[in-house]
Design a protein that fits this description.
Blueprint: E1 4-9, H1 11-14, H2 22-37, E2 41-46, H3 49-62, H4 67-88, E3 111-114, H5 123-134, E4 138-143, E5 148-149, E6 161-162, E7 164-165, H6 167-175, H7 189-198, E8 201-206, H8 210-217, E9 225-227
Parallel strand pairs: 1-2, 1-4, 2-3, 4-8, 7-9
Antiparallel strand pairs: 5-6, 8-9
Helix pairs in contact: 3-4, 5-7, 6-7
């Protein structure tokens, strides 16, 4: 079992639309710490979620904001979410939130918490860059969806869930090639392009279903989509 697990944790897991779910956060914290006791190390890249989108929407409606400005707004939201997670793990986590995924951090702490890096992509891309920097061959994307579908299930009743998909099909048929600030794709198109180059294996699963997350971390079959 690879000692380092890279998790791209959607902002919707940390703070859903309905507000913080403290009972879930306690369970999530315990699950990660239980894995750490088994010798596991983690990089947790935290997304902006609804917090980022609320700020971006308000900014867009107040002024004519450039895509870069909207992305910086989103990155700021990931940083506040990531600080929350870092403090949640206390002494078990590295002392600051990492925002540069291309630089290796020297630490004996079992948990590194990271946030957004640069405009033009989402934290999915940062997770891919962390995998590249640390030589990991897989990462897990914990979001509010259980599977990737062949089309948006919110708009198409006949959308089919996918257990497995390769990168070129995902990019061609589902996520496209262009990034937009606040874009809500199952995996960011810029991240997908880089992940394909690195031949990364990405597991997409529902982050609030901790039983499934545990299975994924243990290398077992889980409910979700494998890309790659």
């Amino acid at each position: 079992m690879h000692k380092l697990k890279i998790l791209s944790v959607g902002g919707s897991i940390i703070i859903p639309k309905t507000g913080f779910d403290v009972a879930f956060l306690k369970k999530f914290r315990k699950m990660i710490l239980d894995e750490v006791k088994k010798g596991q190390k983690f990089i947790l890249i935290i997304g902006g979620g609804i917090t980022a989108r609320n700020y971006q929407t308000a900014l867009r409606e107040t002024v004519i904001a450039s895509d870069t400005d909207l992305d910086w707004m989103g990155i700021s939201a990931t940083i506040i979410n990531a600080n929350f997670v870092r403090l949640m793990f206390g002494d078990m986590a590295y002392k600051e939130v990492i925002t540069n995924p291309t630089k290796k951090v020297k630490t004996n702490k079992a948990i590194i918490v990271a946030a957004g890096y640069k405009p033009g992509c989402s934290t999915d891309y940062d997770a891919v860059l962390f995998a590249k920097t640390y030589g990991a061959k897989e990462l897990f994307n914990l979001s509010n969806i259980e599977y990737i579908y062949d089309k948006d299930p919110a708009h198409f009743a006949d959308a089919k869930k996918l257990d497995q998909i390769d990168w070129s099909t995902l990019r061609k048929e589902i996520v496209g090639t262009k990034w937009e600030p606040g874009k809500n794709a199952p995996f960011d198109p810029i991240a997908s392009r880089e992940a394909e180059k690195l031949k990364l294996r990405v597991g997409v699963l529902k982050g609030t279903d901790l039983m499934e997350v545990k299975k994924a971390l243990g290398g077992k079959k889980f409910r979700g989509t494998i890309i790659g």
